[in-house]
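From the shared-data thread, chain only:
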Amino acid sequence: MVNIIRKNLLAKAAALLLGLAAIFTVVWDEISSPLLYHTLRGNTANFVTTTNIYIPPSLDADSQRKLSINLGGGDCKWEPPVYDVPEDLDFHKTFIAGFPSGDKRMVYLQMEALAGFPAKDEWDFAYMGMSNHPFIKGNYPHHEGIWGWADAADQVVMMVPNIRRSMVEYHDILWDLGYASTWEDASLLRNNLFREQPDLDDYYEWRDARVLDEACWYGWFIDYWMEGGLMRDIFTHKLTTKEHWDDLMLKPFYTRAELDYDLYVSNETDVTPSYDTHCANGDISDGCEPVAIISADKLLDYTDGPAETSAIASALTNDARTGQYVIAPEAWDCIWEELIQNKKGPRIISDRPGYSAISGLVGYNFSAEMVEGMLAELDRLIAKYGGAEWNTKQTANRLVEILTEHRALIQVELDQVNSGERRLREKDFLGPQERRRRHLLKSPEKTDGESDVAPERKKHTRYFIALEQKRFENKRREIKGAARKSDDEANSDRAAMSDGDFIAALSNALAHINTLEAAGGMAQATATELVESIRKVARQARVVLMKD
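Structure, as tokens:
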């Protein structure tokens, strides 16, 4: 019996070695061609060919490193990144920090096009497992984020979105959370947890209050990264204690009153400046303070956009470990043109219906109270980072430049609201003062002696806190479920392969490669399918061999 097992093991090992040798022979024969050699390294400017040869990136390490092709003379060809990142490559990894919005997508797609490798979300690191992705995108320390990448990152690039647009996008989250989906589920009403469902007016009141809070979160988020993880209160921006910080992080859906600074700190002068443990412990090797500040608005601008792509590329070339894979500087402008002007690659936020309306400050309107709240936060940030303590830092100056431009746009809106040019509707962001005024106008006429104060409305804060918490828990559950499904499918694939299946699959894959190689090339879709087939065979082969 032992001899039979040994024979099976030797036969499979020989088949696998033979298959690998055949693959190596095909690839080596292809790259010996001068034309293909230059194609793989992104330079075909000096060669002419009538055959469009496509070699799967996974079969050649160099083609993985420069997938977007530099054609020379400032021309390029965008290609998608290699999504299967080799584990043996040593990267200098970048965390893309950004307040929740669709703008981060534009930044990491630029990185993928420049270097040829993909980004991965912080939540995917937390629940799908660690991997060698060189770009990590996330919202941490915002409550929509999670520090899921352990100590994988080496540097931070911070994306700064327009605060006004971010508030509208956050409203979209709240709307999806509320009436559009979870609201109709009504599961929170079960077991008499909540005896009645709030009406639309209640939702608008709560939403406006949350958006006002989010304006504070916006500034707090920027402070966190600019100051390298220094722990501050969200609403007062004062230095705070670890106890208070932990509650801010673990109870993000509690009210401002429940997390009030004075409940934790009696005297601010007694607070010793301290840092988030992730930053204090060096979980980002070069520190939590960003090396570059990127503007999503400028990235979309046809005048300033190419310079923004160059700023992103420059950040990636800070260290040769990732810098060696970045396409040549002469092609950086072309990469911007391919992604933004020619709209190559996945859809970005500017492709979304209504985006121009949002960026043009129309659509949803804000009352003067709400706009003034955003302006106050911008004024605080501009004064702080434009001051003597910061204005010698290039990143601080860039931040002030971006925020000053945003402020000018929002000031225009405030002027239009105050002049009556912008007419406010019930669904707009009215804020507590304007909504109170409107409730008074809707009330029956007063008789002598009656108060001018609007009648007290039942508070539904606890309902909305529970609803928001439910959405947060659902998100975690969905990601965990996706991780389990992926593991189950992988285990099923391994268990299903028999000895005969192994030999047949490997033989078919190698025969297919030889046939296509003899024909002079292969279509990209065919090549991609073939590569996946080979990967699957390799994974299953390892398991079969281990079983014996």
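The beta strands are 69-72, 75-77, 94-98, 119-121, 135-138, 155-160, 292-295.
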